[in-house]
Request: fold
Amino acid sequence: MSSAAHGDPLASAFARQAQDQRTKRNGSRPAGDCAMVMFGVTGDLARKKLLPAIYDLANRGRLPESFSLVGFGRRDWDDAEFASQVKAHVQERARTDFDEEVWEKLAAGLRFIHAEGFDDDDAYRRLGQVLVDLQDERGTGGNHAFYLSIPPNSFETVCQKLSSHGLARRAQSAADSWSRVIIEKPFGHDEASAHELNHAVERVFASDDVFRIDHYLGKETVQNLLALRFANRLFEPLWNNQHIDHVQITMAEDIGIEGRASYYDGVGASRDVIQNHLLQLLALTAMEEPISFDADHLRREKEKVLEAVHVPEDLGASSARGQYAAGTQHGEEVPGFLQEEGFDPESTTETYAAFKLDIHTRRWAGVPFYLRSGKRLGKRVTEIVVLFKRAPNLLFTEADENQFGQNALIIRIQPNEGATLRLASKVPGTGMDIRDVDMDFSYGRSFTEESPEAYERLILDVLLGEPPLFPRHREVELSWRILDPFIQRWEAMDTQPEPYSPGSWGPSSAHELLSRDGRAWRVP
Reply:
């Protein structure tokens, strides 16, 4: 803990000065006057991620002194109890040192609205009065961001109530105060429901004022993918079907559902992460260079990729699904998915899903993209692996081709964010043995600046009104259009997904998915 955290005025002054210098260097700018209303403020996401991120933004000098946070929930709290709860979560999970002076300024803008439910009209009337008071007392400028960290089936209700009570206003000019809404995934459960939900939300909020959060897009390495591709001459000439054999995108967790039965059952790995996180990573990997980083240009190129994704005719041969069984992981006995508390023992929800997709463009024709995600796998990792075609082995005929020959670029999203380039090299000695070696780049070793937590970046972008990292409704619906045929086939089959052992890398059908093409999943 730094001395600034213990209230040393001199140390605090130096810390703020250093932070100001860092802000100037990295080009970030603070948000303008505003208030945020957080629905679902007592939930896990708010406690573990959102509230600490807001404090960290304040501590980094990214929030104005006027910033105010209004919690909306069922707890019978007054403002002081709410502030006490927020402080506890901040002290436990914030990434920056706790500074009492920063906290006191933030706490002065904390308010809480007790509601019987999301349809409680009296609560919305009190919310409206609180927002008016904050505008007068703290100078929030009448600018409001509504964060909906709530179940998706409540999105429409909250939006309608905000509209009917005059709390969500469409700005008519740049000088007007703004109202924005932040929506957490999942956004619908198929294309039809996503379209209906988009329509309901955009009846209340303008399209550019709807921010669909995908926290993976706030991660530094995801954004660095664009720099890696377009700021380096090395990769772009090779980024096509003449040189790339295939692409693997993996999001693996080594934990189970962790008490999320009420959310996860009926959702599964496909709807939970592949529809949003992994298809977004696919789009960023395969997209053409945008004209600029303007939101319209960036989103347009991602949409072109998703529109060009081809769903194969043989859905069974191009997909795999599984459920983790009981067994031993990390030396401990763990229950199977069907034995987890709160689950139907006949549930057909998958905890593992893998897909093979093709992109019908000149650049990517013939290059399969393999996507997989699962729980209780070998380790926690998210990565994009670009496997290049093997070099013709004309010189090293005595070497074991299993030891070398397929260059790879591995982009690590988490953990140990960075990238690895795999090359073939001569083994020291008198012979000409060849072996693959890694050239590794790690954010932690290469930069002294700490990467901001994804939610810090995304919340700040919402308050600044900068939408490039947020998918718009067209991207969401296109993603569902890709996955719907697979999910509908599984639901029509009404059979149990294939079991797999905890700590493994998924069911045998997932390995067969690649082996049929003469390929294999990379073991992270």
